[in-house]
Here is the input.
Amino acid sequence: MNKILIVEASISDGRLMSGLLTRAGYEPIAVDKMEAAQEEVAKLPPGAVVVAAMKFTGGTARELINWQKCEGYKFPVIAVVDNMNAVDLLSVMRDGGAVDVIQRPAIDKQLIETVGKYAKPESVVIQLDNALIPRRSEKFKEIEQSIDRIAQTNANCIIFGESGMGKEQIARQIYLQSSRTQKPITVIEAGGAELVGLHDPKSDRNEMYNRIKSYFQNAAGGTIILKNIQLLNFEKQSVFLHILSEEHPDVRVICTAEPELLKMVSEKRFRPNLFYILRQVDISVPPLREVSEDIESLTDYFLTLYAHKTEQDKKRLDVSATKALKLHQWPGNVRELKDVILFAAFHTSDDVITASDLNFSQSEPEPDTSLRLQEPEKEKTKIIAALQQSNGNKTQAARLLGIDRSTLRYKLKQFGLD
Here is the structure.
């Protein structure tokens, strides 16, 4: 969705333009002062457009255009004019720097068509494909080895990791390297509309059952990637469990899940029998803050893609930017890193990106650093830490870990700690 910055002193016209743009699928931002306009321009993403009145509080469209040029911004500016003749309009566009004009009395007729000429959705937006991004950490090399091993089997798999870590890319790589690659693949979002169903009075089965069953039928011999299985409600869990345990379809299921799934299983909010059918093998993807050695290679990859898409020379980071990236906690992980690098590359006129060019969001959640069990490969370490913190009191340790005593006893035996 393209963002359109409206700089307009008239409240009524600003409201009119915002309404028209919203209905047309754009995301309008309306301001009435030069200072506010400059602040918003600095935040605009690729593909945005500025619609500015010839005069507004504290400035003019021409002054805003000149400021953009001085600061290195290249957003197209469309001027809103008042009944100008052809000579004056040419002057606005040639000398004033506007790419086009809209006559104020004809805003409702000209705005959407004119904006559509210059709004460029995803013109330089990097969309990650199914390939794995090259990374240098030992942990990621282990993940690549796990992909190779798992792909040679027909085992169901769960890929654990925080949001934004590229779990779907890993799932697709398992499919692409497997013997099922010539058969269909179906990708389903567990919390999406494709799994919403109502009771069908004409059938003995619930409509949800029929819908989920159809996915297995269409993927016969192939693979289903079920994303974010922690979002499956109990009814959907029951349908998947019945199909997998009673009907045994010839379909491999590869799931992605956030770490909270483990807690849901221990608290019986996710059916353990379904969990173990789906988790015949697993892969745990560490958050980016724990593999900071990957930041440099990921950043290089994104800058290379950006240079290719924009047909520009490749930009690079200076020492201050590299340090800032490594110090950030990355609650949004690789996806957040991609957005930060893209934003900096687009808004930096120089070939070198500095720390001051990096725009870290101030509204992101803090990463979870508690003892609660969330990632399979770190469970043993967290259990030992909880036992030490509780002086060996298993009831207190279980409480710190967010599990019950019976689950803790099972884990102690599993890891040889009993």
